[in-house]
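As a warm-up, study this chain.
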Amino acid sequence: MREPAEGRVCPQAWDWPVCARKIVCHLEDCLRSDAAPRVTQALHVLTTTFGHCHGLWTQGLWVQLSPLVACLLEKDPMPAPHTLVDLLLSVARSSVPSSDPGLWETVAQTLSRLSPTQAGPLAAGILKLQDCPQALRIQAFNVLLQPLACVLEAATQAPATPGLLEGAAGDLMAVDTLPPSKSACVGLLCSALAHLELLQPLPQRPSPWPQAPLLAAAVTILRFCNGSAAPSSEAGGRLCTMLVGCVRVQRAALDFLGVLSQGLGPQELVTQVFAVLLEYLMSPDSSPMVLKKAFQATLRWLLSSAMPPGCCDLEPCAQLVLGELLAMLQKRLCSPCWEVRDSGLEFLTQVTRHWGGQASFRQVLLASELPELTRQLLQDPESYVRASAVAAVGQLSSWGLLAAPSSPEQPAIPQETPLEALLLILTTDSEGFPRRAVMRVFTEWLRDGHAEVAEDPERFVAQVLRAAGKDGDWEVRVQGLELALVFLERLLGPRGSSAAAPPSVTARALRALCQVQLFEFAFRSLFDCDRPVAQKSCDLLLFLRATATPPGSPQEAGDRPNVASVEAALRRWRAGEQGQPLGELAPEAILAVLRSMDLEALRDTLAKSSDHVERSPQSLLQDMLATVGVLGDNEADCY
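Now compare it with the structure written out below.
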């Protein structure tokens, strides 16, 4: 079906082609059928149609079939409710609503007929639309809020906040109308929390947004799950029995609580948020995944408590919480469960990144055993933990928080520097994750001017590139090239700057690059069997050529260096012979080689997908011809 060539009038059903009318008749028969599979099939076809086609004829199609769709709401039980929801959302996103206001009435009826679990996806989808009637938005929002309102009603110690549904249309769902089975009740709560979590950051979210009641509901759910909430009735007791220790609900509630940190709330509620988060972080019953979610939510609330936003200073309540968290972290870093140690290190890395310069944080941290525990975890038997320990050591060292405390009575014992410890991991660790983490830390240290690196940056870069060049992990080699790029920018200026470096600066930079053997590393990477490594090397050399040999800079006729040995080595490397090093390189020879290489063509070749030849039309035709040659008379090739 296509739009009419003239005008914008929707063609009437009797003007449709014969085949189209036959298809519609078949769909009508399916929608009238008492067999649920036939109804489901018809709804699937219509969902796909309205999802992909937005011509005028689709409006006529909906006008003809919408009465039959509405009749499905009167059947008991309603056939294919989930598929019906998909269809209504597909139609609501099409051009139909502008021509058929009756669609919204059908959606409203569907919301009232579906069970709370079935209605959740439809309600969330409606609230994400830009234009729909306000009454329908209120009804849809109520569908998502009602399970949380039930939880607040079920707890006698729920935080004192206005009701979730005050001023909204619709009746409050009583606590005893929640699904009686644990799986259904848990599914309903998790679904409502997930939908509200996705709605919170959207500009078209319902307004006013009930921030305080939602905070209270999330805190109450978490208290039901850890058994600290007091039920207000027998139905509330059943809810407590279903939720206590439920990891699935805990994870959903912690995710939602983290998202709510983007809004404001009464100080009393914020205090209760931090209190329940500390309960979960300190509880021995919290599972590793719940702990990870609690760490993430806590960090988000700490960041939202900065005064002013983005500042290091925290509100007094959050300041006290941060002190308790550091004490708790000492126990978590000693946990026998590696996931807990890993999550604790990740959290320590993040809080140090944001508050490493704050005096009170530094004082508490240096008085604790956290720096020493972090050092020890560099030797953890689990590679994920070693990688997280590397990141934590990188942050602590950047802020000068790894120095061992000393006094005249107890002088500090000399120990391995962070740089030495991480270099050892880079050269000896058998797993890729810690080595990648080391390279990320080293790149950050070079970019930020870390004290140990700033003492002798050339020696540091040479050591790291020597180790990265021998590494069998392609991500380590890519990160080595990123470090090389940072080093280049320190010498020649940032990428993208229009001004070329002065000749004197370029000469000094090229001598430094030769000393750290950056060209050896970059040229070898150019012919690396892993394409991301070759692409990164190509970018690095293009940047160097553009900066050191800007367009229009002529080469002196009498100053043409002998580059035959370099080009011969590159040809051998391209052929796969990687044994022979380049040896001593003169800056002039490097510039001459860079001028002679067609790096743009190489970059274009590398940008193509690795299977572009195999997926060409000629290759496909060869596959078809080869397949036909082996098939018998009665066989078919489903490919």
